Amino acid sequence: MALTITIPGAVETTTGSTAPAVLTVGVGAPGQGVPSGGSTGQYLVKASATSYDTAWLTLPANYITSVTAPLAVTAGNLAVDLSAYLTTATAASTYQTIAGMSSYLTTADAATTYYLQTNPSGFITSAALSPYITTATANSTFLAKSNNLSDLASASTARTNLGLGTMATATASDYAALAGATFTGEVSTPASTTGTAGFSILPGTAPTSPTNGEFWNTGSDLQVRLGGVTETLAEQSWVTSQGYLTSSALTPYAPLAGATFTGLVGTVASTTATAGLNVPHGVAPTSPVNGDIWSTTTALFARINASTKQLMTLSDTQTVSGSITFSNASQTLGSSTATGTINVASGATISGSTKTLNIGTGGVSGSTTTTTVGPVLGASTTTIGATTAASTLNLATGATLTATTKAVNIGTNGVSGSTTNIAIGSTTGTSTTTLQGTTNGVTAAVDTNTTQIATTAYVVGQGYAKLASPTFSGTPSLPTGTTAITQTAGNNTTALATTAFVTAAVPAFATNAQAKSATSITVAMTPMANRWATNSQNVVKPFRANFTSTITGTITGYNSQISSWFRLGTAAACSLKNRNYGSTQTDQTYFFETKNNPASYQNFSKPRLLSGRTFLNAFPTIASATMVTWAFYHGKAEGDSLGDLTRRGMGWKYTGGTAPQYIVFQIHDGTTLTNITTTYSPTTLVGFDWDIESDGAGNAVMYINGSAVATATGTAPTGAVSLTPTIWQEEFVASSAPPGNCDACHSRGTITIID
Predict the structure, then answer these.
(1) Selection from 504, 472, 508, 500 nearest residue 484 by Cα
(2) Do 729 and 578 contact (CB within 8 A), yes or no?
(3) 734 forms bridges with which residues in the sheet?
(4) Which of 164, 181, 271, 475 lies in disulfide reach of 168, CB 3.0 to 4.6 Å?
(5) What is the pTM of this model?
(6) What own/partner pairs with CB < 8 Å and gap ≥ 24 does 238-246 have?
């Protein structure tokens, strides 16, 4: 029996054509066959390993429930759908094999390597490639980076020429990795700056198993592992709060290894058990410096001014060379009660040399030096200066502090029956003994006439008169031609008057010429000389009745023989110019101020004195009267305007207002006007005398009631001017309506010119 199987759409492998395929399987002799029984949907399965042992099996419902294409399950039957797949022949004729695709790019490789054919602008032209070289040219011309200079004749020379250091040939093991490393040498961090620290340990958590030497920062503490123990480092503020000393706190203290102190060093007070300072015995330093102190088994030494000095002791026998100065407040030489000899700078002085013995010298103002030589009782011999060479012996010399006392005792404390002989200086050769300060001695009897030193008590006891301010008793007489000190002028006591004092106190009488010219201040006026002075043509008294008054606005008033009185109107501004000796006056066109100049000249180099008396009413007390001015001028020309001087002259002015308002002294040297505010403020209805004195040399002073109130030094007028001036001019001006009645009065008036 034969079995035929038909496969539709099969692909012929040689031609690639598609046609139904028919498979015929021959059937042999019947076998055991299919076991009987069974039901619909069951499957025939092997029941055991025995041949032909089969049985019917019902598959569980979930045995095959679903498959993916091209497989399909229908009612438990599995089917295959190959319609979507090519036959081998069709695939071979249509597609390239995978092995044949090795020379082609994948889409991803093409996209990252080449420009799209659809984007021709992205292609690189040959011109754009001109700056570049081919791989072959690069390999034959340049070094390969991967060769590390091995393609050169000398790599080390090339590295040197390129300025490369040892790191160019170093390996990774020569350097610390960022992940951590163990340094084999000293590690130095950069110096910290205001912007960054040189070393930083970032905060984190403590390691679970730290090893010795590790540091870490927990955010609140800095910790370190030491000897298997984790220690927390103490902050300076914590140490300070515990009372411990910081390194900065130890700065003012000296280390035990040695230090140079900057202030006074005090030791503890010595006790019976210990001294306050100990300098142990040793040997002298080879190169000591100034100030070093050391001791040996023989003495105590010090380095002073580049020289080693051995310090003296008081109990041992020592030989002292050089000059010794005892400057202690008290010095005792030879206090033993036994027989002894004390020689101070004794012995013959070598011919031509000088021996100086100073005892108790060098005192200062306010100090006291007492020098006692020899005992009060008993016999004593004191020899000072025994050496035969030139020498200086100073006992207790040096400056004594102010208000302190220095005592030098030589040969004192003798007892009854003893003898003390003290020889100072030599009886041969030249000897000078100078006793300074207060030297006490025994006062001799009155009228003693020997070489014994006379004490002050002896001199005063003799009754001699002092040279300075002596007080005489009895009737003293002076030798002829005796001179004395002239007393100060004005002395009015019982002191003796010399001829010079008398001559100065009683001046000579003035001559008529001196009286007329008023040039001397050291002579007295006789009655006749006084008449010459008062009748002098140098004294001019203006005649007020002949004054010329120019008034603008409303002003009432008059000029009498000795006074001029005026009141300003209150309706509007007004002014008055009242003058004498002006060029418009017919009575006295020329006044001949000086006898050696033309009649029209005014010579300010001649000394002069201007005097007058003035009363002011109301406007010194009216607060709003600041527009009212009363003035006097000497030297104005007729054509000059009211107000300040504009040429050589002098005068004064006063402007009203709230008291105090002060008179202003005004002078003009022909170039500059100078205003000097005086110290005088007028009082309403209270007259005042004024004087202006010019010395003709550029200096002038204004007086009021006899007191100087203003001084002009070097600014007063000098020289002669060819001008017929109004040598006396009074001005009364209100620049606007006065606030009330304002009166002014000039009385008298004198001009004295020294010619």
Answers:
(1) 500
(2) yes
(3) 574, 628
(4) 164
(5) 0.38
(6) none
CB 405 within 8 A of CB 367: yes
Question: Which residue carries 């003798």 as its tokens?
Answer: 414
Question: Which residues, at least 6 apart from 310, have a Cβ–Cβ distance to it below 8 Å?
Answer: 299, 300, 301
Distance CA 639, CA 736 (A): 23
What is the SS3 assignment for 116?
coil
Question: What DSSP character marks residue 166?
Answer: G
Task: Determine the Cα angle at 652 with ends 647 and 653, to 5°.
Answer: 110
Per-residue pLDDT averaged across 147-169, rounded? Answer: 74
How does DSSP assign 431-491, residue by residue? Answer: ------S----PPPPTT--SSSPPPHHHHHHTTPPPSSS----S-----TT---PPPPTT-
Residue appearing with tokens 């600014």: 715
Q: Is the pLDDT of residue 693 over 80?
A: yes
Amino acid residing at 543: F
pLDDT tens digits, 388-421: 666 667 776 666 677 777 777 777 777 777 777 7
Cβ-proximal residues to 682 (8 Å cutoff; 6+ apart), any chain: 614, 616, 620, 654, 661, 663, 688
Among 197-201, 445-449, 621-625, 649-653, the least confident range:
621-625
The pLDDT of residue 583 is 42
Structure tokens that stand for 390 in this block: 């030139």
- Whether residue 120 has pLDDT greater than 60: no
- Please give the structure tokens belonging to residue 193: 């700056």
SS3 labels along 371-440: EEECCCCCEEEEECCCCCCCCEEEECCCCCCCCCEEEEEECCCCCCCCEEEEECCCCCCCCCCCCCCCCC
* Mean pLDDT value across residues 451-460: 83
Torsions phi, psi for 509 (to 5 deg)? -80, 145
* Domains of the chain and CATH, by start: 1-29+42-158 (no CATH), 324-433 (no CATH), 437-464 (no CATH), 483-536 (no CATH), 537-753 (2.60.120.200)
Predicted pLDDT at 28: 61
Does the structure show a pLDDT above 50 at 439?
yes
